[in-house]
Amino acid sequence: MKKNAVIIGYGGMGGWHADFLRRSDVVNLMGIYDIKPERCQLAESRGIHAYSSLEAVLSDPAVDFVTIATPNDMHKPLAIAAMKAGKHVVSEKPVTLSSGDLQEMFDAADKYHRVFTVHQNRRWDGEFLVMRDIYNSGELGQVYRIESRVHGSRGIPGDWRQEKEHGGGMIFDWGIHLIDQIMGIVKDRTLKKIFCHCDHITNELVDDGFQLDMFFEGDLVVRVEVGTSNFIGMPRFYMTGVNGSALIPDWCQPAKLVYCFNYTEKEVVPVVTAAGITKTMAPRDDKSITSKEIPQPAADVHDFYRNLVKAIDGIEPQIVTHHEMMVDVLIMEAAFESDRTGMPVEVNLKF
Question: Model pTM greater than 0.85?
Answer without folding.
Answer: yes
